[in-house]
Amino acid sequence: MIQSMTGYATAVRETPQGSLSVELKSVNGRFLDLQFRLPEDLRQIEPRLRELVAARISRGKFECRMALAPSTGSAPSLRLNEPLLAGLAGLARRVREKLPEAQPFRVGEVLHWPAMLIDDAQATDALREAAVALVESALADFAATRGREGAKLGAMIAERVRRMQELLAAVEPRLPEAIAAYQEKLAARLREALAGADEERIRQEIALFGVKSDVAEELTRLAAHVMEVSRVLAAGGACGKRLDFLMQELNREANTLGAKSVSKELSEASLEMKLLIEQMREQVQNIE
């Protein structure tokens, strides 16, 4: 399945600590660019989240935003750091032995001591696991949106490919007749311009023109590239870069075909091909 690089998904889960929400979105990009904005308590799970995302997408600018809204009336579960408290009390006693006039610690001073208050480790671990599970759930919806968008892009490109195949099929049989007619006109003009020149000189000029105006190679390459686009679309997967390269090759051959045009029909076909290629190229930029 072809994946678009544009996607969006949200998910919410209730936890004992409050309502946990996540928002995932991505836009097109040349490489994989991951950005995470997480609450402080969830910073440690970022490496796990990166692995989850990288396993599902290979290209694009991806952003994950997560927020925790505390429940009404809920309070954080905090505990005293007992070893630190005991050590601080022992130090205070030793200070008062040396300095009897020293004032004892106040409760507020103890509570504000660095690392004196610690969260409930089990509750924090449970919150982190819930966050990972929430992102996994959102990623499934996120991948589905990218898949639906990718299917639309693939169908649009396939439609343009079919039109290019129709143009190639229509142009190729008419090419010998168009070249012959143009050569006849060219011969008449040369006879007028090169009055007195022998027929051999005129035949040489026409032969040289025939070599320069031969577009059989361009038509063959266009047909081959169009078939390759169809094959890549059918294979699916992360094919954006491959399709982008093929668009460049198609555009090059279509330009050469137009430059060598010997008839109005060929010029019109070349212009329509370039329009189709440009339409495909714009959409290919959004394919993973």
Question: Nutshell version of this structure?
Answer:
It is built from eight helices and six strands, in the order E-E-E-H-E-E-H-H-E-H-H-H-H-H.
Give a structural overview.
- The protein is an alpha+beta fold.
- The chain folds into three domains: 7-73 and 121-145, Ribosomal Protein S5, domain 2 (2-Layer Sandwich), CATH 3.30.230; 78-118; 149-284, Butyryl-CoA Dehydrogenase, subunit A, domain 3 (Up-down Bundle).
- 62% of the residues lie in helices and 14% in strands.
- The protein has a four-stranded mixed beta sheet, covered by helices on one side. A two-stranded antiparallel sheet has the order 5-6.
- It is rod-shaped.
- The termini are close together.
Task: Tell me the layout of helices and strands.
Blueprint: E1 7-15, E2 18-27, E3 32-37, H1 46-54, E4 60-69, E5 78-80, H2 82-98, H3 107-111, E6 117-119, H4 121-193, H5 199-212, H6 216-235, H7 240-259, H8 264-284
Parallel strand pairs: 3-4
Antiparallel strand pairs: 1-2, 2-4, 5-6
Helix pairs in contact: 1-4, 4-5, 4-6, 4-8, 6-7, 7-8
